[in-house]
Task: structure prediction
Amino acid sequence: MGNTKNPPTRRSRLGVTIILLLYAVLATALICYSEKVRVEHERARVSYLAGERAIAIQSNIEQALSSAYALGSMVELTKGDLQEFDRLANTLRMFYPGISALELAPGGVIQRVVPLAGNEKAIGHNLLTDPQREKEALLARTSHKLTLAGPFELLQGGLGAAGRLPVFLPDEKGESQFWGFVVVLIRFPETLVPARLSELVESGYNYQIWRVHPDTGKKHIIDASTREELRNPVERTVHVPNATWTLSVAPMDGWIDTTTLAIKIGLAVFIAALVLVMTLSWQKSHPA
Result:
């Protein structure tokens, strides 16, 4: 008589195939889930590290720029008399090591700089008429607030940023009139040293500090460990006077740990082989 049922060997192969397919789906789901959790934990850890560095950058810049208020008070108290500027500026530089130079710009024109050596080219520079400086200078004057301009290429050479505090003095009628700017100059990358960004690189991470350029609207990189675009970085905000910078950090080799992933896949293959052997062994000992 003809046998209408599938042969035992065919049923066995089908059963093994189903078991392996179910195992493959389960193993893939578990590997994907565990890798997702690992990446989330890693991103949270890197975000914490980046946050520490962002706070350090912000604190160092704020500390250096706070000297502008002392200079501004001097201008107000002396009603624009610049005789004590050099003495006070040298004292402030002792207490604020992040300062590269201090400047006074009556009417927007730089007239005094400490230290003068190396900064001679800045004397006579009109901040309100320079196409590359006027936008942020006008913002400071209009807002009546300390504003950080730059970073940009300095006239005296190198890369720097300028904190500009507008000073207003009463005229003969007692009405407040724009006197000029008190300027605090900081240099890059020197001002970023306290943030210990080099430690990120030593730990296997790339970073970029950037801003949206106020003139072009494009990404302007201030400092970076690489000029290549970072892959899916974590980002922390650095708040500076009247502006916002961003610190982006990402692993040099990407978020996927290929070694760990290979171990997981190898373990899954080993278990699959073990399941296959056990299934075939069970079928031999329990023939249909």
Remarks:
- The first helix runs from residue 8 to 65.
- Helices lie at 8-65, 67-78, 85-95, 134-143, 198-202, 258-285.
